[in-house]
Specification:
Spore Coat Polysaccharide Biosynthesis Protein SpsA, Chain A, elongated, single chain, 10 helices, binds uridine-5'-diphosphate, alpha/beta, binds magnesium ion
């Protein structure tokens, strides 16, 4: 009995990495006994020759299946498309730059066959990432897990094995803004973790700037927690109580000692402080309302231009 394994490879301008990637990944896949495999490559609006390389691969080896996006939709959308298209009984999203070492795949498959529904690959040390990136990442996980009931395991990327059941659960989630780390964690299932050391990129440059990562983190918080919305209520209540107490104190003082010195400084501080608190809380409201707005438009998470080999594209959408 052979089992079908699907790799999902999001590719955005990966022409330098692709040859290295296929050279590394194919021998590993061949070495796993009792499996057939397919590699679903999602070309996420690349502007270099990534797509033509992928098409050439698919023409020589039918186990490569290519999904071509109509533009760059981002890694989360590319993975969503991969999950929709993959047919495997187990599915593994993997980066094209070999930062997710393919040598781990046999161990993942083994754990899956032993009964795990999700096999996580955890980075033991991230010394190849810059200090700033490591520390901001650590802060993100800490904050996120403090705010949200959905715990995202620390130092676990998108590289993982998922059973078909998990994939179907993910595909049922209707949201359009797909923060995959959070969605992966949200669906649950029996999970096993394997540790590895994260290598640096095989070729090319990272596709995520600092600001993109910051926005990504914000999306994570607001997708999986409403605590940032609620905290302002309590802060506002506390502030109002303090202000009332202070007002009562002033009134009392005026009654006892007569007209006090003009209270310009305290007034100024109070006005600016509460003004800024209001601005912050409006900003937070705006963040959530923006999400509601995007979700209500019901736009699909991605648009497929073509698939290779070429049946007509399936109904687009995130689920
Ligand atoms: N990627 C993508 N769309 C994007 C950005 C990245 O499909 O808009 C892919 C990219 O080709 C790679 C994976 O996502 O296979 C991870 O990207 P990268 O290595 O740049 O991220 P990092 O490892 O720096 O977090
Ligand atoms: Mg990378």
């Amino acid at each position: 009995m052979t089992q079908l394994l699907s790799l999902i490879v999001p590719c955005h301008n990966e022409s330098e990495s692709l040859p290295v990637f296929t050279a590394a990944v194919l021998p590993v896949l061949e070495s796993i006994p009792g499996t057939e495999w397919e590699i679903v490559c999602v070309d996420d609006g690349s502007r270099d020759d990534t797509l033509s390389q992928l098409i050439a691969l698919a023409e020589t080896d039918p186990r490569f299946r290519i999904v071509e996006f109509s533009r760059n939709f981002g890694k989360e959308a590319a993975m969503t498309a991969g999950l929709d298209v993959a047919r495997g009984e187990a599915v593994i999203p993997i980066d094209a730059d070999l930062q997710d070492p393919p040598e781990l795949i046999p161990a993942m498959v083994e754990a899956w066959r032993a009964g795990a529904e999700v096999v996580l690959a955890r980075r033991m040390d991230r010394s190849t990432d810059s200090l700033l990136k490591r520390q901001t990442a650590a802060l993100f996980y800490k904050l996120h897990n403090a705010l949200s009931k959905t715990r995202i395991p620390e130092n676990v990327g998108d590289f993982r094995l998922m059973d078909r059941r998990v994939v179907e659960a993910l595909r049922q989630l209707p949201e359009r803004q797909r923060f995959m780390k959070g969605l992966f964690a949200w669906v649950g299932f029996r999970t096993v973790t394997i540790d590895y050391v994260r290598p640096s990129r095989a070729a090319g440059n990272t596709k995520f700037s600092g600001f993109a990562l910051w926005n990504f983190a914000l999306e994570g918080f607001t997708s999986f927690s409403t605590a940032p919305l609620r905290v302002w209520t309590y802060l506002g209540l506390a502030g109002a109580a303090l202000a009332l107490a202070y007002g009562a104190l002033i009134l009392l003082r005026t009654l006892i000692y007569g007209n006090p010195v003009p209270g310009y400084p305290s007034l100024f501080v109070a006005v600016t402080f509460f003004g800024s608190v209001q601005l912050i809380s409006i900003g937070i409201l705006g963040e959530y309302i923006g999400r509601i707005y995007v979700e209500t438009k019901q736009r699909p998470a991605y648009i497929i231009r073509r698939q290779y080999p070429g049946p007509p594209p399936p109904a687009p959408g995130g689920g």
